[in-house]
Every structure is written in C-alpha cells, then in structure tokens.
C-alpha cells in the first residue's frame, strides 16, 4: 500500500490516506476544481464514488457536507484500504465491493452526485454511464475522470455531456439528464 494522498479541504483537510497498489488517486488540483464546481451542491448531498481507490473524493465530499457517501470498488484489496481510510477518519460511509460497470444494477439510488474515476485504460464508458443513469437523482450530476487525450460520448441514454474540463493529463466530463427528458418524463 502506498501513502501520499491528502484530503485538500473540508473538515478532514490535510489528513493523509493510504492508496492501494495500482491506484491513481485524483490529483489535488483536479479535486479542488471538482469541489469548487460542486461547492453549492455538496451540503446534504447523496454521493456515489465509483472506482473509489483510496476513497479520497468520497471522503472529502463527506467532510465538505455530503449527507451520505457510498464508496464502490471491485478489488478486495482496495475495499480493505477504503475501510482502513474510513476508520482512520472515523467516518460512517458505506463501502461496497462490486465489479464495475456490471455491478451498478445492484445499487439503489438516487444519488445527487456521482463521481467515477476508472483506470485511464478503461474503455467501457458507455456501459458505465448507462448503468449509472438510473441511479442519478432528477437534478443530479455524474462526473467521469479520464485521460485528457480521450473523449467520452456526448450522449448516453438520458444523459448528455454538459461540459469537459481539462487539467494536464486529466479531464473531467460532466453529465446530466437531458433537460427535455427530465421535464417530460419525471414531472
């Protein structure tokens, strides 16, 4: 297990977390940008962190006011790291071991904010977004971190990509329900 990722803000600011082998934690500047964008939406939010790795995004979201956080990863070793990091901070978050994206059908939403940080070699973003869409609250948002050298689909089922932000080798793609779809099918 590697060490070296620190929570950048919120009530756990500065706390170090363990990082499982082969994990690539979301860089501090990318997390700061994400939480700046989500600042007005975190208080009381239900957050889902997929491919959670060290759990730094979900745990920081909890420390910034999220009501509930579910950390999901497919590796038993990573789940043990997530449990250790949650215990270190003495936080009550849920942790699940599920193969992704297949395991998304076993989760129950809704979640206001969903963050997914699959390995940059991951190529099944279409299935990931399609599986996450039913878990998303009506006004919710999904953010996928990926290599800035790749582009995610602009639409997947009811989801539309609303924005892409690039930070060096990393990019964040933001997805929301199509406003015409949300207005007609869920009111």
Tally the beta strands: 10
Query: Percent range for helical residues?
Result: 25-40%
Low-confidence stretches: 182-187
Structural Rg: 15 Å
Helices and strands, in order, run as EEHEHEHEEHEEEEH
The quaternary structure here is single chain
Mean pLDDT: 93
Reported for the largest beta sheet, the result is: 8 strands, mixed
The count of helical stretches stands at 5
Class derived from helix and strand content: alpha/beta
- Strand % is 25-35%
Read across the widest sheet, the strand sequence of neighbours is: 5-4-3-6-7-10-9-8
Spatial separation of the terminal alpha carbons: 47 Å
Q: How would you describe the shape?
A: globular
Care to describe what's here?
The chain has 187 residues and is an alpha/beta fold. Helices cover 26% and strands 33% of the residues. It has an 8-stranded mixed sheet with strand order 5-4-3-6-7-10-9-8. It starts with a strand and ends with a helix. The model is unreliable at 182-187 (pLDDT under 50).
Topology summary:
Elements: E1 2-6, E2 16-19, H1 28-38, E3 46-50, H2 56-63, E4 68-73, H3 76-89, E5 94-97, E6 111-116, H4 125-132, E7 136-147, E8 155-156, E9 159-167, E10 170-177, H5 179-185
Parallel strand pairs: 3-4, 3-6, 4-5, 6-7
Antiparallel strand pairs: 1-2, 7-10, 8-9, 9-10
In short:
With about 190 residues, this protein is α/β, with parallel strands linked by helices.
Record keyword descriptors for this entry:
187 residues; alpha/beta; 8-stranded mixed β-sheet; two-stranded antiparallel ribbon; 5 helices; 26% helix; globular; disordered C terminus
């Amino acid at each position: 297990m590697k060490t070296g990722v620190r929570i950048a803000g919120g009530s756990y600011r500065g706390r170090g977390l363990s990082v499982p082998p082969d994990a690539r934690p979301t860089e501090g500047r990318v997390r700061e940008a994400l939480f700046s964008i989500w600042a007005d939406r975190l208080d009381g939010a239900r957050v889902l962190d997929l491919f959670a790795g060290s759990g730094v995004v979900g745990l920081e979201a909890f420390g910034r006011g999220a009501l509930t956080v579910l950390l999901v990863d497919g590796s038993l070793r990573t789940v043990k790291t997530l449990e250790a990091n949650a215990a270190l901070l003495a936080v009550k978050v849920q942790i699940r071991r599920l193969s992704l994206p297949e395991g998304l059908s076993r989760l129950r939403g809704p979640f206001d904010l969903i963050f997914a940080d699959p390995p940059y070699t991951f190529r099944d973003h279409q299935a990931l977004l399609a599986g996450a869409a039913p878990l998303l609250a009506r006004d919710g948002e999904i953010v996928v971190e990926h290599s800035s050298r790749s582009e995610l689909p602009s639409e997947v089922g009811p989801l539309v990509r609303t924005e892409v932000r690039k930070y060096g080798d990393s990019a964040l793609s933001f997805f929301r329900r199509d406003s015409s779809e949300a207005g007609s099918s869920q009111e």
